[in-house]
Fold:
Amino acid sequence: MFPVAVFDSQWRVLERLWVAPISLRGMLRLKGTDRAAFWLLVEQGHLSIAAGGDDMVVNESGQKLLRGCWVINPTGAREWRQLSPLDFADR
Structure:
């Protein structure tokens, strides 16, 4: 297990959690709130953490999608990346 923080697009920490060192993708909710879900993607040593709320848009089908996510590479550098609906395809 290793610590991961969920951030919003202003790089504010919204929640801290522990994840296993394996590839995973899932929806998260802020504890004790009714805020929109959050995406956490851990793949090949890279963390992509995307916030909900103001960072979410709704497509024609009523599905909520994220505008973008923070990509954190192994060197610790971070970059805001725009997302497309293809990023949310089921695996």
